[in-house]
Amino acid sequence: MRIAHLSLTDYRNYERAEVSFDAGPTLIVGRNGQGKTNLVEAIGYLATLSSHRVSNDQPLIRAGRDAAIIRARLQSSDRELLAELQINRVGANRAQLNRGVVKPRELVRYCHSVLFAPEDIALVRGEPSGRRRFLDELLVQRIPRMAGVMSDYERVVRQRNTLLKSARASGLRDAKLSTLDIWDERLVVLGSEIIAERLNLIDRLQDPLRAAYQSVAGDDQVPRLVPALSIDGSGAGEEGDVSDAVPSETGSARRAASVTEIATHFRDMLARLRGRELDRAITLVGPHRDDIVLMLNALPAKGYASHGESWSYALALKLASAELLRHDFASGDPVLILDDVFAELDQARRRRLADAVTGYEQVLITAAVLDDVPEALAGTVVRIRAGEVVDA
Prior knowledge:
392 residues, alpha/beta, globular, six-stranded mixed sheet, 40% helix
């Protein structure tokens, strides 16, 4: 799959932008602050319905405007699609596919991309929420219906937390606890499906992660992903960063469990923590409290890996994601986006990264200086200046 043409209206610092892309590598060049990242961010948004830089949509809309529009012509084999997304400052976002109205989450079925940026080192060094988001965005690209499951689950967590606060304020009346039992079951049904799919995804990532890490790091260290699940007691009592300690293998073994087995453990842990949840008025068990521990050989990468190792691990996670997507879809490779990464690398790492991505159908690379990008990735050049495409 590739992006043949991208059109932006009132997106970030772009009043209007029209740019065509060829297959192979395209270099998007411009000084810092001109809008290079904004351009590729828009492509990433179509694939994940989120930005890798901000947690809500408001900054994506040009100042003084009510909406931003992303329009992309997608080509896959002999098929061509027009995907359009309107990001509204007020009200729900709207989407079209080939001029027909669809739900925004339908777009992720057709637009697949993987974006790597320097900020992704937080996957290794940052909080569990970033790693959960990484898993869920990849999961939704692979199984689009999971977007609805996750949305329903988040709504149940909010409703349940409201009920817990109400029960605590009213002295834990029986009527409130009876209603809580109903929400518990809904939490278990939705949460168990998310946990099961995440565990399957983690299992699928292990081999491509090892191959990707060795290709970019050039050594024989072995990365491994270990689930840390709140239904097993990991992080269930506090705001869940369990990745600074060597994990048990309980979560790893759970990957073979069925949704039914996961649900049983989920219910048991909810029962055990009912009193603590009522005291704190917050839901302490579920996929919103889970983590993955990024192991490097026998130690967690967080706290033990060097800067270079952490960078290689984060990049390997993204390359493994791209490898998984290219094998999952008949539509071909995802669009691979490298946002301002080559300036951070020495010559050896630049060459290894270039070798790792050369075979992808379309690679979009942003850089402030053209010379930072290896010759192996030389291709079409798009120049950006002050929110305008000045040379494409």
